[in-house]
Write a structure and sequence with these properties.
Length: 437
Amino acid sequence: MISSIVSITLMFAEILAGEIALSKYLHRRRQYVVRLAVGIAVCIELIVLVSMLYGWATGAIFVYGAGSDGIGDSAFKFAYYLLVFALTFACMTICYSDPPWIILFYCSGGYAMQHLGFNAASMICRAAGVSIVAVSWATEVLACAAVFAVGRLLLTVLGADAAGARGVRGKTLVCLAVLFVCVGLSRITIDDSTRSSLAFWAESLYAVISCALILGILFSISQKDKAQSDAAVMEELLRREKEQFELSKENIDMINIKCHDLKHQIASLRSVADEEYVREIEDAVMIYDATVKTGNDILDVVLTEKSLLCEKNHITLTCVMDGGSLSFMSKSDIYSLFGNALSNAIESVRGIADRDRRCISITSRVSGRFFSVHMENRYEGCVEFEDGLPVTRGDRTRHGYGMRSIKHIVEKYGGSVSVTAENGVFSLDLLFPLSGS
Protein backbone atom coordinates (compact mmCIF):
# COMPACT_ATOMS: atom_id res chain seq x y z
CA MET A 1 0.00 0.00 0.00
CA ILE A 2 2.88 2.36 0.81
CA SER A 3 4.33 1.77 -2.64
CA SER A 4 0.95 2.59 -4.21
CA ILE A 5 0.60 5.79 -2.17
CA VAL A 6 4.11 6.83 -3.24
CA SER A 7 3.20 6.12 -6.87
CA ILE A 8 -0.03 8.12 -6.78
CA THR A 9 1.78 10.95 -4.95
CA LEU A 10 4.44 10.89 -7.65
CA MET A 11 1.70 11.13 -10.25
CA PHE A 12 0.26 14.16 -8.44
CA ALA A 13 3.69 15.81 -8.27
CA GLU A 14 4.34 15.16 -11.97
CA ILE A 15 1.00 16.59 -13.11
CA LEU A 16 1.47 19.67 -10.91
CA ALA A 17 5.03 20.11 -12.21
CA GLY A 18 3.73 19.93 -15.78
CA GLU A 19 1.09 22.54 -15.04
CA ILE A 20 3.66 24.86 -13.45
CA ALA A 21 5.93 24.36 -16.47
CA LEU A 22 3.11 25.80 -18.61
CA SER A 23 2.38 28.69 -16.21
CA LYS A 24 4.61 31.21 -18.02
CA TYR A 25 1.67 33.49 -18.84
CA LEU A 26 -0.19 33.06 -15.54
CA HIS A 27 -0.01 35.65 -12.75
CA ARG A 28 1.20 34.50 -9.37
CA ARG A 29 -0.65 35.50 -6.25
CA ARG A 30 1.10 37.05 -3.28
CA GLN A 31 3.01 34.60 -1.07
CA TYR A 32 3.13 32.17 -3.99
CA VAL A 33 5.67 29.81 -2.41
CA VAL A 34 3.73 29.56 0.85
CA ARG A 35 0.47 28.95 -1.00
CA LEU A 36 2.10 26.26 -3.15
CA ALA A 37 3.69 24.50 -0.15
CA VAL A 38 0.45 24.49 1.85
CA GLY A 39 -1.55 23.33 -1.19
CA ILE A 40 0.83 20.42 -1.85
CA ALA A 41 0.79 19.37 1.81
CA VAL A 42 -3.01 19.37 1.98
CA CYS A 43 -3.33 17.46 -1.32
CA ILE A 44 -0.87 14.76 -0.21
CA GLU A 45 -2.83 14.32 3.01
CA LEU A 46 -6.02 13.88 0.98
CA ILE A 47 -4.32 11.33 -1.27
CA VAL A 48 -3.28 9.26 1.75
CA LEU A 49 -6.74 9.63 3.30
CA VAL A 50 -8.53 8.43 0.13
CA SER A 51 -6.23 5.38 -0.09
CA MET A 52 -6.98 4.50 3.53
CA LEU A 53 -10.73 5.02 3.04
CA TYR A 54 -10.57 2.68 0.04
CA GLY A 55 -9.10 -0.04 2.24
CA TRP A 56 -11.65 0.60 4.98
CA ALA A 57 -14.59 0.50 2.53
CA THR A 58 -13.50 -2.55 0.48
CA GLY A 59 -11.43 -4.50 2.96
CA ALA A 60 -8.64 -4.66 0.36
CA ILE A 61 -5.32 -2.89 -0.07
CA PHE A 62 -5.26 -0.16 -2.73
CA VAL A 63 -2.88 -1.14 -5.54
CA TYR A 64 -1.78 1.60 -7.96
CA GLY A 65 -0.36 -0.62 -10.69
CA ALA A 66 -1.78 -3.34 -12.91
CA GLY A 67 -4.39 -5.81 -11.82
CA SER A 68 -7.88 -5.28 -10.45
CA ASP A 69 -10.71 -7.02 -8.68
CA GLY A 70 -13.17 -6.16 -11.39
CA ILE A 71 -14.63 -3.26 -13.32
CA GLY A 72 -15.57 -1.52 -10.08
CA ASP A 73 -11.95 -1.44 -8.97
CA SER A 74 -10.82 -0.04 -12.34
CA ALA A 75 -13.56 2.57 -12.18
CA PHE A 76 -12.41 3.62 -8.71
CA LYS A 77 -8.81 3.99 -9.89
CA PHE A 78 -9.94 6.10 -12.85
CA ALA A 79 -12.02 8.29 -10.51
CA TYR A 80 -8.98 8.51 -8.24
CA TYR A 81 -6.90 9.84 -11.15
CA LEU A 82 -9.56 12.46 -11.86
CA LEU A 83 -9.46 13.43 -8.17
CA VAL A 84 -5.68 13.83 -8.36
CA PHE A 85 -6.09 16.09 -11.39
CA ALA A 86 -8.76 18.09 -9.55
CA LEU A 87 -6.35 18.52 -6.61
CA THR A 88 -3.66 19.89 -8.92
CA PHE A 89 -6.20 22.30 -10.40
CA ALA A 90 -7.16 23.42 -6.89
CA CYS A 91 -3.47 24.06 -6.12
CA MET A 92 -3.10 26.13 -9.27
CA THR A 93 -6.16 28.28 -8.51
CA ILE A 94 -4.78 28.94 -5.02
CA CYS A 95 -1.41 30.01 -6.45
CA TYR A 96 -2.49 31.96 -9.55
CA SER A 97 -4.99 34.81 -9.90
CA ASP A 98 -6.11 34.21 -13.49
CA PRO A 99 -9.70 33.18 -14.38
CA PRO A 100 -10.46 29.47 -13.73
CA TRP A 101 -10.88 28.67 -17.45
CA ILE A 102 -7.42 30.02 -18.25
CA ILE A 103 -5.88 28.01 -15.42
CA LEU A 104 -7.79 24.87 -16.49
CA PHE A 105 -6.45 25.38 -20.03
CA TYR A 106 -2.86 25.02 -18.81
CA CYS A 107 -3.79 22.27 -16.34
CA SER A 108 -5.12 20.11 -19.17
CA GLY A 109 -1.83 20.61 -20.98
CA GLY A 110 0.12 19.65 -17.85
CA TYR A 111 -1.88 16.44 -17.42
CA ALA A 112 -1.42 15.56 -21.10
CA MET A 113 2.35 16.03 -20.78
CA GLN A 114 2.46 13.86 -17.64
CA HIS A 115 0.48 11.06 -19.29
CA LEU A 116 2.73 11.27 -22.35
CA GLY A 117 5.86 11.09 -20.20
CA PHE A 118 4.45 8.20 -18.14
CA ASN A 119 3.70 6.09 -21.22
CA ALA A 120 7.05 6.95 -22.80
CA ALA A 121 8.78 5.78 -19.60
CA SER A 122 6.69 2.59 -19.58
CA MET A 123 7.82 1.75 -23.11
CA ILE A 124 11.46 2.46 -22.24
CA CYS A 125 11.32 0.23 -19.17
CA ARG A 126 9.52 -2.53 -21.11
CA ALA A 127 12.11 -2.43 -23.89
CA ALA A 128 14.99 -2.47 -21.39
CA GLY A 129 13.43 -5.21 -19.27
CA VAL A 130 13.43 -3.03 -16.14
CA SER A 131 11.60 -4.64 -13.21
CA ILE A 132 12.96 -2.64 -10.26
CA VAL A 133 10.34 -0.20 -8.99
CA ALA A 134 12.83 2.52 -8.02
CA VAL A 135 14.39 2.45 -11.49
CA SER A 136 10.93 2.66 -13.07
CA TRP A 137 10.14 5.70 -10.93
CA ALA A 138 13.43 7.37 -11.88
CA THR A 139 12.81 6.70 -15.58
CA GLU A 140 9.31 8.11 -15.29
CA VAL A 141 10.57 11.29 -13.59
CA LEU A 142 13.26 11.82 -16.23
CA ALA A 143 10.84 11.19 -19.10
CA CYS A 144 8.30 13.63 -17.66
CA ALA A 145 11.03 16.24 -17.06
CA ALA A 146 12.11 15.99 -20.70
CA VAL A 147 8.52 16.35 -21.92
CA PHE A 148 7.94 19.32 -19.60
CA ALA A 149 11.08 21.06 -20.90
CA VAL A 150 9.98 20.62 -24.52
CA GLY A 151 6.46 21.80 -23.65
CA ARG A 152 7.78 24.91 -21.93
CA LEU A 153 10.00 25.67 -24.95
CA LEU A 154 7.09 25.27 -27.39
CA LEU A 155 4.89 27.45 -25.19
CA THR A 156 7.49 30.23 -25.31
CA VAL A 157 8.29 29.93 -29.02
CA LEU A 158 4.64 29.76 -30.13
CA GLY A 159 3.50 32.39 -27.63
CA ALA A 160 0.48 30.31 -26.58
CA ASP A 161 -0.95 32.87 -24.17
CA ALA A 162 -4.58 31.86 -23.57
CA ALA A 163 -5.55 35.23 -22.04
CA GLY A 164 -7.62 37.14 -24.59
CA ALA A 165 -7.51 34.33 -27.17
CA ARG A 166 -10.73 33.07 -28.70
CA GLY A 167 -12.22 29.61 -28.16
CA VAL A 168 -10.30 28.81 -24.97
CA ARG A 169 -13.23 27.12 -23.25
CA GLY A 170 -14.13 24.99 -26.26
CA LYS A 171 -10.57 23.84 -26.83
CA THR A 172 -10.10 23.10 -23.13
CA LEU A 173 -13.28 21.01 -22.92
CA VAL A 174 -12.42 19.03 -26.06
CA CYS A 175 -8.89 18.35 -24.85
CA LEU A 176 -10.06 17.27 -21.38
CA ALA A 177 -12.67 14.94 -22.89
CA VAL A 178 -10.10 13.27 -25.15
CA LEU A 179 -7.58 13.12 -22.31
CA PHE A 180 -10.01 11.51 -19.86
CA VAL A 181 -11.04 8.93 -22.46
CA CYS A 182 -7.37 8.18 -23.10
CA VAL A 183 -6.58 7.82 -19.39
CA GLY A 184 -9.72 5.75 -18.79
CA LEU A 185 -8.92 3.32 -21.60
CA SER A 186 -5.34 3.01 -20.39
CA ARG A 187 -6.61 2.23 -16.90
CA ILE A 188 -8.91 -0.53 -18.15
CA THR A 189 -6.29 -2.14 -20.40
CA ILE A 190 -3.57 -2.02 -17.72
CA ASP A 191 -5.86 -3.92 -15.36
CA ASP A 192 -6.29 -6.69 -17.95
CA SER A 193 -3.75 -9.29 -16.89
CA THR A 194 -4.30 -11.32 -20.08
CA ARG A 195 -3.24 -8.63 -22.54
CA SER A 196 -0.34 -9.41 -24.86
CA SER A 197 2.92 -7.54 -25.38
CA LEU A 198 1.62 -6.28 -28.72
CA ALA A 199 -1.42 -4.83 -26.97
CA PHE A 200 0.87 -3.00 -24.51
CA TRP A 201 2.86 -1.35 -27.29
CA ALA A 202 -0.28 -0.42 -29.23
CA GLU A 203 -1.95 1.07 -26.14
CA SER A 204 1.16 3.02 -25.12
CA LEU A 205 1.67 4.43 -28.61
CA TYR A 206 -2.02 5.37 -28.75
CA ALA A 207 -1.67 7.27 -25.46
CA VAL A 208 1.49 9.08 -26.58
CA ILE A 209 -0.02 10.11 -29.93
CA SER A 210 -3.29 11.23 -28.32
CA CYS A 211 -1.49 13.37 -25.75
CA ALA A 212 0.75 14.87 -28.45
CA LEU A 213 -2.36 15.82 -30.48
CA ILE A 214 -3.95 17.34 -27.36
CA LEU A 215 -0.86 19.47 -26.80
CA GLY A 216 -0.92 20.48 -30.46
CA ILE A 217 -4.50 21.73 -30.07
CA LEU A 218 -3.62 23.64 -26.91
CA PHE A 219 -0.50 25.22 -28.40
CA SER A 220 -2.48 26.29 -31.48
CA ILE A 221 -3.64 29.27 -29.39
CA SER A 222 -1.03 31.55 -30.90
CA GLN A 223 -0.45 35.15 -31.92
CA LYS A 224 -2.97 34.71 -34.74
CA ASP A 225 -5.77 34.04 -32.26
CA LYS A 226 -4.72 37.00 -30.14
CA ALA A 227 -4.42 39.25 -33.19
CA GLN A 228 -7.97 38.36 -34.27
CA SER A 229 -9.26 39.01 -30.76
CA ASP A 230 -7.41 42.33 -30.54
CA ALA A 231 -8.76 43.37 -33.93
CA ALA A 232 -12.32 42.71 -32.77
CA VAL A 233 -11.75 44.75 -29.61
CA MET A 234 -10.21 47.65 -31.55
CA GLU A 235 -13.08 47.60 -34.03
CA GLU A 236 -15.52 47.96 -31.16
CA LEU A 237 -13.44 50.75 -29.60
CA LEU A 238 -13.36 52.65 -32.88
CA ARG A 239 -17.13 52.29 -33.23
CA ARG A 240 -17.67 53.71 -29.74
CA GLU A 241 -15.19 56.52 -30.37
CA LYS A 242 -17.12 57.48 -33.50
CA GLU A 243 -20.30 57.73 -31.43
CA GLN A 244 -18.44 59.73 -28.79
CA PHE A 245 -17.15 62.10 -31.48
CA GLU A 246 -20.66 62.93 -32.64
CA LEU A 247 -21.76 63.58 -29.07
CA SER A 248 -18.67 65.69 -28.25
CA LYS A 249 -19.11 67.83 -31.35
CA GLU A 250 -22.71 68.57 -30.44
CA ASN A 251 -21.75 69.41 -26.84
CA ILE A 252 -18.90 71.74 -27.87
CA ASP A 253 -21.09 73.52 -30.43
CA MET A 254 -23.73 74.02 -27.75
CA ILE A 255 -21.13 75.35 -25.27
CA ASN A 256 -19.81 77.81 -27.86
CA ILE A 257 -23.32 79.13 -28.55
CA LYS A 258 -24.03 79.53 -24.84
CA CYS A 259 -20.68 81.23 -24.23
CA HIS A 260 -21.33 83.65 -27.09
CA ASP A 261 -24.71 84.58 -25.58
CA LEU A 262 -23.26 84.89 -22.07
CA LYS A 263 -20.54 87.30 -23.24
CA HIS A 264 -23.19 89.65 -24.58
CA GLN A 265 -25.11 89.40 -21.32
CA ILE A 266 -21.93 90.06 -19.31
CA ALA A 267 -21.27 93.19 -21.38
CA SER A 268 -24.70 94.55 -20.40
CA LEU A 269 -23.91 93.89 -16.73
CA ARG A 270 -20.91 96.20 -16.68
CA SER A 271 -23.13 99.27 -16.36
CA VAL A 272 -24.97 98.01 -13.28
CA ALA A 273 -22.58 95.63 -11.49
CA ASP A 274 -19.20 95.88 -9.80
CA GLU A 275 -16.34 95.62 -12.31
CA GLU A 276 -14.39 93.03 -10.27
CA TYR A 277 -17.51 90.85 -9.92
CA VAL A 278 -18.14 91.05 -13.66
CA ARG A 279 -14.52 90.14 -14.39
CA GLU A 280 -14.79 87.01 -12.21
CA ILE A 281 -17.87 85.92 -14.13
CA GLU A 282 -16.13 86.63 -17.43
CA ASP A 283 -13.07 84.59 -16.44
CA ALA A 284 -15.30 81.67 -15.47
CA VAL A 285 -17.06 81.79 -18.82
CA MET A 286 -13.77 82.06 -20.73
CA ILE A 287 -12.71 78.68 -19.35
CA TYR A 288 -15.49 77.08 -21.38
CA ASP A 289 -14.90 79.35 -24.36
CA ALA A 290 -11.61 77.59 -24.99
CA THR A 291 -12.28 76.76 -28.62
CA VAL A 292 -9.10 75.81 -30.49
CA LYS A 293 -8.70 76.75 -34.15
CA THR A 294 -6.31 74.60 -36.19
CA GLY A 295 -7.91 74.65 -39.61
CA ASN A 296 -9.60 71.27 -39.10
CA ASP A 297 -13.04 71.19 -37.45
CA ILE A 298 -12.65 67.65 -36.11
CA LEU A 299 -9.23 68.31 -34.60
CA ASP A 300 -10.67 71.50 -33.08
CA VAL A 301 -13.34 69.42 -31.33
CA VAL A 302 -10.75 67.02 -29.90
CA LEU A 303 -8.40 69.75 -28.71
CA THR A 304 -11.21 71.83 -27.23
CA GLU A 305 -12.58 68.82 -25.38
CA LYS A 306 -9.16 67.86 -24.02
CA SER A 307 -8.24 71.45 -23.14
CA LEU A 308 -11.26 71.61 -20.82
CA LEU A 309 -10.08 68.38 -19.16
CA CYS A 310 -6.57 69.83 -18.85
CA GLU A 311 -7.97 72.98 -17.26
CA LYS A 312 -9.81 70.87 -14.72
CA ASN A 313 -6.63 68.96 -13.81
CA HIS A 314 -4.33 72.00 -13.84
CA ILE A 315 -2.45 70.76 -16.91
CA THR A 316 -0.80 73.12 -19.39
CA LEU A 317 -1.64 72.10 -22.96
CA THR A 318 0.18 73.87 -25.78
CA CYS A 319 -0.72 73.20 -29.39
CA VAL A 320 0.78 74.40 -32.65
CA MET A 321 -1.01 72.32 -35.26
CA ASP A 322 -1.70 72.70 -38.96
CA GLY A 323 -5.02 70.88 -39.01
CA GLY A 324 -5.52 71.62 -42.69
CA SER A 325 -2.85 69.07 -43.56
CA LEU A 326 -5.03 66.30 -42.09
CA SER A 327 -7.52 66.47 -44.96
CA PHE A 328 -6.38 63.01 -46.14
CA MET A 329 -7.72 61.40 -42.94
CA SER A 330 -11.35 60.51 -42.13
CA LYS A 331 -13.19 62.38 -39.37
CA SER A 332 -13.55 59.36 -37.10
CA ASP A 333 -9.85 58.48 -37.48
CA ILE A 334 -8.77 62.03 -36.58
CA TYR A 335 -10.96 61.96 -33.48
CA SER A 336 -9.75 58.51 -32.43
CA LEU A 337 -6.06 59.13 -33.16
CA PHE A 338 -5.64 62.45 -31.36
CA GLY A 339 -8.24 61.62 -28.72
CA ASN A 340 -6.33 58.49 -27.67
CA ALA A 341 -2.96 60.23 -27.80
CA LEU A 342 -4.12 63.15 -25.64
CA SER A 343 -6.00 60.89 -23.22
CA ASN A 344 -2.85 58.86 -22.64
CA ALA A 345 -0.83 62.04 -22.09
CA ILE A 346 -3.38 63.50 -19.66
CA GLU A 347 -3.54 60.25 -17.72
CA SER A 348 0.25 60.27 -17.46
CA VAL A 349 0.71 63.84 -16.21
CA ARG A 350 -2.35 64.20 -13.98
CA GLY A 351 -0.65 62.15 -11.26
CA ILE A 352 2.43 64.41 -11.09
CA ALA A 353 2.43 66.25 -7.76
CA ASP A 354 4.29 69.32 -9.07
CA ARG A 355 1.69 71.24 -11.12
CA ASP A 356 4.43 73.16 -12.96
CA ARG A 357 5.53 69.86 -14.53
CA ARG A 358 2.05 68.93 -15.75
CA CYS A 359 2.75 69.90 -19.35
CA ILE A 360 1.65 68.50 -22.70
CA SER A 361 2.71 69.86 -26.05
CA ILE A 362 1.68 68.89 -29.54
CA THR A 363 3.16 70.28 -32.76
CA SER A 364 3.05 69.45 -36.44
CA ARG A 365 5.03 70.30 -39.53
CA VAL A 366 5.10 69.58 -43.23
CA SER A 367 8.49 68.65 -44.63
CA GLY A 368 8.62 67.79 -48.30
CA ARG A 369 6.13 65.03 -48.95
CA PHE A 370 5.64 64.14 -45.29
CA PHE A 371 3.41 65.41 -42.49
CA SER A 372 4.71 64.80 -38.97
CA VAL A 373 3.19 65.19 -35.51
CA HIS A 374 5.24 65.39 -32.33
CA MET A 375 3.63 65.08 -28.91
CA GLU A 376 5.43 64.98 -25.59
CA ASN A 377 4.56 65.05 -21.93
CA ARG A 378 6.22 64.57 -18.58
CA TYR A 379 5.83 61.32 -16.67
CA GLU A 380 6.89 59.75 -13.40
CA GLY A 381 7.83 56.16 -12.65
CA CYS A 382 8.76 53.52 -15.21
CA VAL A 383 7.27 52.99 -18.67
CA GLU A 384 7.22 49.37 -19.85
CA PHE A 385 7.37 48.55 -23.56
CA GLU A 386 6.18 45.54 -25.51
CA ASP A 387 6.66 45.27 -29.30
CA GLY A 388 7.79 48.90 -29.36
CA LEU A 389 4.63 50.22 -27.66
CA PRO A 390 4.08 51.22 -24.01
CA VAL A 391 1.84 48.94 -21.96
CA THR A 392 -0.28 49.43 -18.87
CA ARG A 393 1.27 47.91 -15.77
CA GLY A 394 -0.81 45.57 -13.63
CA ASP A 395 -3.23 44.05 -16.14
CA ARG A 396 -1.64 42.64 -19.25
CA THR A 397 -4.91 41.23 -20.57
CA ARG A 398 -6.35 44.69 -21.17
CA HIS A 399 -3.30 46.82 -21.83
CA GLY A 400 -2.28 48.88 -24.82
CA TYR A 401 -5.49 49.11 -26.86
CA GLY A 402 -5.19 52.92 -27.01
CA MET A 403 -1.66 52.74 -28.42
CA ARG A 404 -2.57 49.84 -30.69
CA SER A 405 -5.46 51.88 -32.03
CA ILE A 406 -3.07 54.78 -32.72
CA LYS A 407 -0.65 52.48 -34.53
CA HIS A 408 -3.48 50.86 -36.49
CA ILE A 409 -4.80 54.22 -37.71
CA VAL A 410 -1.37 55.60 -38.62
CA GLU A 411 -0.41 52.47 -40.55
CA LYS A 412 -3.79 52.58 -42.31
CA TYR A 413 -2.55 55.77 -44.03
CA GLY A 414 0.92 54.36 -44.76
CA GLY A 415 2.53 56.12 -41.80
CA SER A 416 4.76 55.07 -38.94
CA VAL A 417 4.77 55.48 -35.15
CA SER A 418 7.77 56.06 -32.91
CA VAL A 419 7.57 56.12 -29.10
CA THR A 420 10.32 56.97 -26.60
CA ALA A 421 10.43 57.52 -22.85
CA GLU A 422 13.65 59.02 -21.54
CA ASN A 423 14.63 61.33 -18.67
CA GLY A 424 11.05 61.79 -17.56
CA VAL A 425 9.81 62.85 -21.02
CA PHE A 426 7.45 60.66 -23.04
CA SER A 427 7.48 61.37 -26.79
CA LEU A 428 5.11 60.20 -29.51
CA ASP A 429 6.04 60.85 -33.14
CA LEU A 430 3.72 60.19 -36.08
CA LEU A 431 4.86 60.41 -39.71
CA PHE A 432 2.47 60.38 -42.68
CA PRO A 433 3.27 60.46 -46.40
CA LEU A 434 1.41 63.15 -48.35
CA SER A 435 0.57 61.52 -51.66
CA GLY A 436 -0.81 64.75 -53.09
CA SER A 437 2.42 66.73 -52.53
